[in-house]
Amino acid sequence: MPRTLNIAIEGCCHGMLDNIYSQLLTRQKQTNKKIDLLIICGDFQAIRNVTDLGCMSCPDKYKQIGGFYRYYTGERVAPVPTIFVGGNHEAGNHSRELYYGGWVAPNIYFMGNSGVLKFGGLRIGGISGIFKDFDYAKGYYERPPFRGHSRSSMHHARSYEAFKMLQIRQPLDIVVSHDWPQNIERYGDTDGLLKKKPFFEKEVERGELGSPLNALLLERLRPAWWFSAHLHVRFTASFGPQESIFTQGWKGIPPYEQDLSNVSASGGFDANQTDGMSGTAQIGNVDEIVMSSLSDEEADLAEPELEIKRPRMELNLPPPKHDIAPALIDITDQEPTSEASECIGAVTSDLKQEEHSIQTDSTNIEPATTNPASYSTPRVSGRATNFLALDKCLPKRQFLEVIEIKVPDSAADGELKLEYDPEWLAILRLCNPYLPLDESPFVPPAQAQACEANQLPLFSDEQLDRELEWVTKNVFRNGRVYVPSNFVPVAPVPPPGTPDSVSFGLARNDGNRGRGRGRGQRGGYGHNQRNDAPWTGPRPYFINANPQTDDFCKMVGIIDPLTQLLR
Crossing angle of helices 159-166/422-431, nearest 10°? Predict the structure, then answer.
């Protein structure tokens, strides 16, 4: 019989782990069914100290230490294995210490800027950040102390991460992102979405709601499930196996519609540079802020936009659907089901479940058979992708949902622990030499040919197989490899008993934008009085050497130039 996993999905966390775990434990008690894994879709806010809080990209009036530091010290332990991707409101310095992924606390794992893991027979991919066209093509130019624009640009997804994810050949069961795939709203109840969020209407009309990067990945990867957050609303869609959401390929996202063949794939690094927008590929005026027509609460949380005129794209998409509840596809026999699930809110607790069978492929990549080069696809024939986006963790919001996933016996014979994925480690070995470290546009290496069918820069199956052979021999020689429980705290934390509301003097009202009050003000969505108690002792470092990253790089046989530069 197949193994059934209970997977909990959470939208935007915003540091409210205590509330989220409380809801999950209540659910377990009421249903007598154990939650096997929690997936958080960004804005996790792993804040350990005053430096992390200062590096967090969000309006100052929302800056509070929160309760994560208690999980970091071990005072509290996550009751459910938890994985998450980064959003656009994170402590970027902390995330940068774990660029390839790692434990931020016991039982809580960050998937890195992009990554693939296995759990209980499921293959789960993730990509962090949100799409901003003025940063998309750049390398990782940000340096401590992460001031100004670089504080937010650290959370802007880069084309280099898309390039790595495009190399995936084996099917994925789940992909997690913070940003929605662009135009996914057209495959669900678009009218219902606009009733809840009317200020999305212009973006929907222009075909600009969501991330074109994630649409590109959805077009190629087509997992059974795609989970997102960011827009603070629950939304479901079904993306059929014969449908297309992004047909422009790699060159459909600016600036790759231009000829960048003469641009150096990697530029030099000025050791005296700390941050800012200096260098090539600077776009626009960083001081020019454009405010969108958001509600007061949404405007408070929104990231300032640079004034960018995005080229119009020719769209070949279905018209918006009206008042349709997307069908859920049973992957085993491809018969649609009509089960609908309710979200666990901060007050409600009843929950119906969505049962879903996953068709997995746990075998190694088959040797290439064509000559001179072959390019396999991760698609599973006839399989649709079910999209689910959830809200942020607040009362009466649909921020948490549980689904049941059936995993075939052939892929479910291991412990319920996180495992490294052989193909992803091989991809890291292929791509790591091209990690871009300045503002110059990332240019895919010449070895990654643009396939004629889809114009994607892909290494061939033969190239990937060679690295997979190395990984199999040197890392997976004894079979599966579980992610080691090697978390150690590397940064200082506040004294025990420090309230979640402490801002260490960093929170302030930034111009009283809108009528909404901040999380740290009475009446704001945190319902707690802000505490401006100062940080005692010396300020922690911006970047800490993390032995998890060192151990991982040694295991895979790569170097981490990003962390080395930042140190």
Answer: 130
Looking from the CA of 43 toward its CB, the CA atoms found within 13 Å total 26
> How does pLDDT run across 176-233, given as a tens digit for each residue?
999 999 999 999 999 999 999 999 999 999 999 999 999 999 999 999 999 999 999 9
**How many percent of the chain have pLDDT more than 70?**
75
| Region for 565 from its dihedrals, namely left if φ exceeds 0, alpha if ψ lies in -120 to 50, beta otherwise | alpha
The torsion angles phi and psi of 513, rounded to 5 degrees, stand at -60, 120
Secondary element (H or E) of residue 355: strand 354-357
> Which residue do the tokens 């959805």 mark?
218
How far is 409 from 197, CA to CA, in rounded Å? 42
Task: Tokens for 332, please give them.
Answer: 């085993």
The Cα 559–Cα 553 span in angstroms is 6
Paired with 387 in beta bridges are 226, 237
DSSP readout, 241-257? TT--S--S-GGGSTTTT
Return d(Cα 388, Cα 399) in angstroms, integer: 11
Backbone φ, ψ for residue 202 (5° rounding): -65, -40
Q: Please provide residue 17's backbone torsions phi and psi, each rounded to the nearest 5 degrees.
A: -65, -40
**One-letter amino acid of 435:** L
* Whole-number Å distance between alpha carbons of 419 and 226: 20
Q: How far apart are CA 108 and CA 10, in angstroms?
A: 14
Q: Are 180 and 157 in contact (CB under 8 A)?
A: no
Give the CB-side neighbour count of residue 114, counting CA atoms within 13 A: 25
Written as one letter, the residue type at 306 is: L
Collect contacts of 287-290 with beta carbons under 8 A, ≥24 apart: none
Instruction: List the one residue out of 143, 48, 137, 135 whose CA is nearest residue 91.
Output: 48
- pTM score of the predicted model: 0.82
User: What's the sign of the alpha-carbon dihedral 540, 541, 547, 549?
Assistant: positive
Q: Give the residues across from 9 on adjacent strands.
A: 39, 401
Alpha helices in 351-436 (DSSP H): 422-431
d(CA 61, CA 40): 24
